[in-house]
Amino acid sequence: MKKILIIHGPNLNLLGEREPDQYGSVTMAQIDADLTKLAAELGIEIETYQSNVEGEIVNAIQNARGKFSAIVLNPGGYTHYSVAIRDAIAAVKIPTIEVHLSNIYSREEFRQKSVIAPVCAGQIAGFGADSYMLGLRAAFVVSK
Q1: Among the options 8, 23, 78, 132, which is catalytic?
Q2: DSSP labels, 57-88
Q3: Is 80 a catalytic site residue?
Q4: Tell me: the pLDDT tens digits for 45-101?
Q5: 81 annotated active-site
Q6: Alpha carbon of 143 to those of 1, 5, 97, 140: distances in Å?
Q7: pTM tops 0.70, yes or no
Q8: Mean of the per-residue pLDDT values for the chain?
Q9: Which residue is catalytic, options 8, 78, 100, 132?
Q10: Closest Cα partner for 52 from 99, 104, 13?
């Protein structure tokens, strides 16, 4: 059975209370519950993980080798500058889908560049919590 790792980056543990006008009122727990339901429908397993720490996210990506067929990653603020996360994705060669709740291309200029996207199979942004659901479906398609 395919197994997909979902990684929530920094500050996503505060969803539902953090800038609801930008990120909506849904919590990370609700997103995880919806992902679990969708995974069951697709006949796959998922594991979810959240960290505010860049190195821990790098470790999670590296530890996914041989265990997961794809990764869905919301790198949060690390999107715009984390060469370490980018390099980890490139190194493990696990198809990765980058997701964002907001449309990063309609936000502040510094948020409009992703250093992560060039090493990902694809990117989904701007659909709120549904970005994760679309990301899981994409990961299912590209997974080995």
Answers
A1: 23
A2: HHHHHHHTTTT-SEEEEE-GGGGGT-HHHHHH
A3: no
A4: 999 999 999 999 999 999 999 999 999 999 998 999 999 999 999 999 999 999 999
A5: no
A6: 11, 11, 10, 5
A7: yes
A8: 92
A9: 100
A10: 13
